[in-house]
Structures are given as structure tokens and as C-alpha cells.
Write a structure and sequence with these properties.
alpha+beta; Alpha-Beta Plaits; globular
């Protein structure tokens, strides 16, 4: 099993900030159920940009998180927010 690190960036329209934050409140706690951990969470002062550093124990954990029914139930909040999401798989470098 190989650990997996992701950088997730979100650009959120001003009108969608409350829906985006509600989505995050619903889904971020699910990470630990699937071997995930939110290592760092950064937000712009205007709340229109947010960046997460997330680590999973395995790719299977990431896939299980993506298919979690509670995450899927919260998906309309993300859609309503209008957020543009980028997910990058990254590695530590020395």
C-alpha cells in the first residue's frame, strides 16, 4: 500500500461561499473513515479560494471516499456553489 497526497484547490464565486462551506462541513469529516487526513487547509481572506493538502493511506481509500453515499448526498451543495475544483496528485520532494 502506498500513501497518496493530494492538493485540492477551489475557486468559489462570492454567491456560492455558504453552499461550499456547508459542503465541506459535510464531507471533510468523512476523510478519516477512509484512511484520509486533512493535513492543511488554507482559505483566502475573502473565502473565494481554498486549498487543502490531503493524504490517504491508499488509493483505495480515496476511491472509497469519492463513492461514500454521504458525500454523494452533499454533492448538490457543491454544484450550487459553482466552485471550480482542481485536484492534483503530488509527492514530497527534497
Amino acid at each position: 500500500m502506498t500513501a497518496l497526497s493530494l492538493v485540492v484547490g477551489a475557486r468559489v464565486p462570492a454567491a456560492g461561499v455558504s453552499d461550499f462551506q456547508a459542503y465541506e462541513a459535510a464531507v471533510l469529516p468523512l476523510l478519516t473513515e477512509h484512511g484520509g487526513m486533512l493535513e492543511r487547509r488554507l482559505r483566502g481572506r475573502d473565502a473565494l479560494v481554498e486549498v487543502h493538502l490531503i493524504r490517504f493511506v491508499s488509493r483505495d481509500g480515496l476511491e472509497a471516499f469519492r463513492h461514500n453515499p454521504r458525500r454523494q448526498e452533499a454533492a448538490p451543495l457543491l454544484a450550487r456553489s459553482g466552485a471550480m475544483i482542481d485536484v492534483l496528485e503530488v509527492e514530497d520532494v527534497n
